[in-house]
Write a structure and sequence with these properties.
The complex is a heterodimer of chains A (723) and B (251). Chain A is mostly helical and 723 residues long. Chain A is built from 28 helices and four strands. In chain A, helix 3 links the parallel strand 1 and strand 2. The longest helix of chain A has 33 residues. In chain A, 38% of the residues are buried. In chain B, helix 4 packs antiparallel against helix 5 and helix 5 runs parallel beside helix 6. The relative contact order of chain B is 0.17. Chain B folds into two domains: 174 residues, P-loop containing nucleotide triphosphate hydrolases (Rossmann fold, 3-Layer(aba) Sandwich); 67 residues, no CATH class. Helix content of chain B is 35%, strand content 26%. Chain B contains nine helices and ten strands. In chain B, a hairpin with a 3-residue loop joins strand 1 and strand 2. Classes of the chains: A mainly alpha (723), B alpha/beta (251). At the A-B interface, helix 1 and helix 9 of A face strand 1, helix 2 and helix 3 of B.
């Protein structure tokens, strides 16, 4: 098998390398583009600076001192004359003082005073006064525009401490004017302070008793790394995604369109090996794309660093973050590269043509960019729930690794595990896709979906992507529905039970009906055998012990916020009227509805693509995520695995429903008895032994059943009176 | 060697609805050359793809040397050589690289693979272009190379779907000669074709498909020789349906 994957890797890699046009457009061109874009930007900036832009005109009324201090083109602003102009350095803002005749100045000052008085007098809820205020503003703006002014600075004799800047903030040079006015006002204030201190016989230290001095201790590489922490992961993921996408198109759709796929599929090589060989090539192409792009970007920013930074600041480029950091980024990105390459290959395999594949890949690229872009926002930090979000989780973990002195190993590990788990699911789906006829002849055998199917037998169960899509929709509806009912102040029973029924069970049943999936195979709706029901009942107390034990084990690691969230939920449960209502809302309804989703379409679809154990574990993971409560995650995950295994063992969902409902009912019962939490080690032992005991109960061999008797001759072998 | 049991396969056509491409075909084959004849759209390629494990029957069974194509596709592919009208080769490879690539999927030792490649190059006259890129080869050269790579793993079941389509006379002749030369006591060759001369030259047995159904299964000589065979097969394919009156268009 391994030799076939390697053989395919060599063949596909060689083919891709020989496709020089694609290689050039997708790998070499982006590498060349960075220096070219940088050169272009520098040229544009220099050309822009060379253009003479008129300083925005402003008028000053009642403050001759300020008029002299405003920065203008004629003034020496302290910048050395021989200083080399920097392309990206911001120009110092200046204004042009407009000369307004005395009469007009008096009229403007009067209007400004009237406006100021209206502003002070108008209450927020006085509609008529508000309208008058709006009219006064519009009138003054008309005057400003008639005089072609960006701003009017008014200092009223009656209020000499107030400098009013009445600005046309839609003026194209408004920000420059505002900046220059602020500088002028600051100079004026400083001069007034100095004069008054001199009059009082005091020096400047009297009003400035403290001075703040900043001494940066971090090495240059670390400070650059921290400042680029949001941008680097985003750049990396975009490079990886584009590298994976173009190779996926060529490797799958290209092979089909060149007419070579039919031969490949007729050779004795497993579909899984074909996919894995192509996946290895796609991952390698994405990794090479990332490395080359990083090198190009690093060298470009290093070469043009001095042009990029303002004067007086040490030049820096991407390479200043250090080789070790870039290597860490690259290694942290690898699982994500595998996920991206897997998704791209799978979608390319699903498409009937390269055009259709591009239709799928374009929105996927958008999703990738949005998911990665979220991590680039300032203030976003990794957290345990976010670690479970594909792309965003690894990006946030990587950003934190670049920002913080300590590498967040837990977040990196969890987000990497999520990426790889997603990749495994998609590989399973893609291999199943390769096994199907529509991979080789997509247009020929496409038959439609479910009740809209045009011909042929219905599918036994949904595909994993379809099932996970269903999961995402119902969990979204469940979360929003639950929150809406809580906000609406509904009774506790409605808050707990209605979202489970309306948002989980009903959509699952509707999906199965629309998809025309047989209930037996897709939902495991089968009459259970008595011994499986007995096993489920035996597992109930063991499950409660496991839950209590594992809950104790994970409690010290859960942030207080989530523990509070848990207590909030317990308060809702406590509002339920009686024990019977509690049993229905907390035990019976979740036992049926949650199992219908997690051990129904989710388990049946995953089992067909990644096998029994993998399906049980992944369905349990999704089951634990469904509850949106990290403080219960571990117990629910452990319990979910057993619920999955008992469903697979019995072929029926009923034992899992019985065990789930029984477990919750026992927890409700125990909640009425005051109990001390076990110590941590005892909790660990209780959790592990409880879980292993459940596993043993589920895995116990089936009791031997008597073989059906051979067809006996009429009248023979039947003893009267026997049942 | 090969057993078809009530094999059915349908497709959906937006214009015609469900189309039964192969409809309840039952036959058993031992070694030899079998010619498969049918009009365009009669289901020949579908039947061959079903045997080659590329499609799965909606119902019925296809069994190759005891292996079901549904459940033991890997075993079937290990003894299969498949060449169809839609089969292309990797244009960025040379002929030599292609044969090495194909050989890599079969359990053939490296020195044995070298010997077989040389033998194929001798047999099909590939030496002059074996190191050239496939993209630059002519149609005849391509088909010779295609036959060479199909025969390279020495398959027990050789499926050739219209291998002479689009070839000039010498190339078509070479292909027919190759089929005759590929005969072996334990090998079954299925050749789909529209040319009755090829049938007469190579086939021990003739199958005629009409609208997915097997309408004739027997030795070609049973239908006649030369023009008689062609007329008989024409009759089976059209089932007495009148041909459009092309004469009226010409007039």
């Amino acid at each position: 098998m391994r030799s076939h994957i390697w053989h395919l890797f060599k063949k596909d890699g060689l083919e891709l390398l020989r496709d020089r046009r694609t290689m050039f457009v997708n790998i070499v061109l982006p590498v060349l583009l960075f220096p070219l874009i940088m050169l272009f930007m520098i040229q544009i900036t220099q050309l822009t600076r060379a253009q003479q832009v008129d300083a925005p005109p402003v008028a000053v009324v009642g403050a001759d001192d300020l008029r002299a201090l405003l920065p203008t083109a004629d003034q020496d602003d302290g910048a050395p004359e021989d200083a080399e102009p920097q392309p990206f350095a911001p120009a110092e803002p200046i204004v042009a003082i407009a000369e307004v005749d005395t009469e007009a100045a008096a009229a403007l000052a009067e209007r400004a005073r009237a406006l100021a008085a209206l502003e002070d007098a108008t209450a927020a809820d006085d509609v008529a006064a508000g309208r008058r205020l709006g009219e006064a503003r519009a009138e003054l703006l008309r005057d400003l525009r008639a005089l072609k002014l960006a701003a009017l600075i008014v200092v009223d004799d009656a209020r000499p401490r107030r400098v009013a800047i009445l600005g046309d903030d839609a003026h194209p040079e408004w920000s420059t004017a505002e900046g220059a006015i602020r500088r002028g006002v600051e100079r004026w204030r400083k001069r007034l302070i100095d004069e008054r201190l001199k009059l009082a016989g005091l020096d400047a230290d009297t009003v400035v008793p403290l001075e703040l001095e900043r001494i940066a201790l971090a090495p240059r590489a670390e400070s650059v790394r921290a400042s680029l922490a949001g941008v680097i992961p985003l750049l990396l993921v975009i490079m990886a995604a584009s590298g994976a996408f173009f190779s996926a198109l060529d490797l799958i759709v290209g092979e089909r369109e060149r007419g070579t796929l039919e031969s490949l599929l007729s050779w004795p090589v497993k579909r899984r090996d074909i996919f894995l060989g192509k996946l290895a090539v796609s991952c390698t192409a994405a990794a090479i794309s990332v490395v080359l792009n990083l090198l190009s970007l690093g060298l470009t920013t290093a070469l043009f660093g001095s042009q990029l930074t303002p004067p007086g600041v040490e030049p820096s480029g991407l390479l200043a973050v250090g080789f070790g950091t870039l290597l860490l980024c690259f290694l942290a990105l690898l699982p994500l590269v595998v996920t991206l390459a897997t998704v791209s290959l799978a979608l390319a395999g699903y498409a009937a043509s390269s055009k259709e594949a591009q239709n799928y890949l374009t929105p996927l690229m958008l999703v990738v960019m949005v998911a990665a872009g979220v991590a680039a926002f300032p203030g976003t930090r990794p957290s345990l729930p976010l670690d479970l979000v594909p792309i965003t989780g690894p990006m946030l973990a990587l950003k934190e690794a670049l920002r913080a002195a300590d590498v967040p190993w837990l977040h990196l590990a969890l987000s990497t595990a999520t990426s790889l788990a997603l990749a495994v699911v998609i590989v399973g789906w893609a291999v199943r896709l390769l096994e199907s006829e529509k991979f080789c002849y997509p247009g020929l055998v496409r038959a439609g979906w479910g009740r809209f199917r045009r011909w042929g037998p219905p599918a036994e169960a949904p595909g994993p992507i379809e099932a996970i899509g269903l999961y995402a929709v119902v969990v979204g509806a469940f979360t929003i529905g639950g929150a809406a009912l809580q906000r609406a102040g509904m009774p506790a029973f409605t808050i707990v039970a209605v979202p489970l029924i309306a948002c989980l069970a009903v959509p699952v049943l509707l999906h199965a009906w629309l998809g025309a999936y047989p209930a037996r195979t897709a939902l495991h709706c089968l009459k259970p055998r008595r011994e499986h029901l007995q096993r489920a009942l035996v597992c109930v107390p063991l499950g409660v012990a496991t839950s209590i034990g594992l809950g104790t084990v994970q409690a010290p690691f859960i942030p207080e916020f989530f523990m509070e969230q848990g207590k909030e939920m317990e308060r809702v449960f406590a509002d339920l009227d009686s024990l019977w209502v509690q049993l229905i809302a907390i035990a019976l309804v979740p036992g049926i509805c949650e199992e219908l989703l997690c051990r129904g379409p989710i388990l049946s679809s995953l089992r067909r693509s990644i096998g029994g154990w993998g399906a049980a574990v992944l369905a349990a993971f999704l089951f634990a995520v469904l509850h949106m409560s990290p403080y219960r995650f571990l117990p629910q995950f452990a319990l979910g695995i057993i619920l999955g295994l008992i469903t697979l063992r019995s072929g029926s969902i009923v034992p899992a429903m019985l065990m789930h409902a029984g477990h919750n009912a026992l927890v409700v019962g125990l909640g009425r008895v005051p109990m001390a939490e076990p110590p941590w080690l005892a909790g660990l032992a209780m959790g592990v032994f409880g879980w292993l005991a459940m596993l043993a109960v589920v895995a116990l061999p089936e009791p031997r059943r008597p073989r059906p008797a051979a067809i006996a001759p009429p009248g023979a072998g039947v003893t009267p009176g026997t049942p | 060697m090969l057993r078809l049991e009530s094999v059915r396969k349908s497709f959906y056509d937006p214009g015609r609805g469900e189309v039964r491409a192969v409809d309840d075909v039952t036959a058993e084959f031992t070694a030899g050359v079998v010619a498969l004849v049918g009009a365009n759209g009669a289901g020949k390629s579908t039947l061959l793809r079903l045997i080659a494990t590329l499609l799965r029957p909606d119902s019925g069974q296809v069994v190759v040397n005891g292996y079901d194509t549904r459940t033991d596709a890997g075993h079937v592919r290990a003894q299969l050589g498949y060449l169809s009208t839609t089969t292309r080769m990797y244009p960025r490879f040379s002929g030599d690289e292609l044969m090495r690539h194909v050989g890599g999927f079969f359990p053939i030792a490296a020195d044995e693979l070298e010997r077989r490649i040389d033998r194929m190059c001798d047999a099909f006259g590939l030496h002059e272009f074996r190191h050239q890129r496939i993209a630059g080869l002519s149609t005849g050269q391509l088909q010779r190379l295609n036959l060479a790579r199909t025969l390279l793993p020495d398959p027990n079941l050789l499926i050739l779907d219209e291998p002479t389509t689009g070839l000039d006379l010498p190339s078509a002749h070479l292909v027919v000669e190759a089929v005759r030369a590929a005969r072996r006591p334990e090998r079954l060759i299925i050749l789909a074709t529209h040319i009755m001369q090829e049938v007469e030259l190579v086939a021990d047995r003739l199958l005629v498909l009409r609208r997915g159904k097997l309408v004739f299964d027997g030795p070609p000589a049973a239908l006649g020789v030369g023009p008689a065979l062609e007329a008989a097969v024409y009759g089976l394919l059209t089932d007495g349906e009148a041909h459009p009156r092309l004469g009226t268009i010409v007039a």
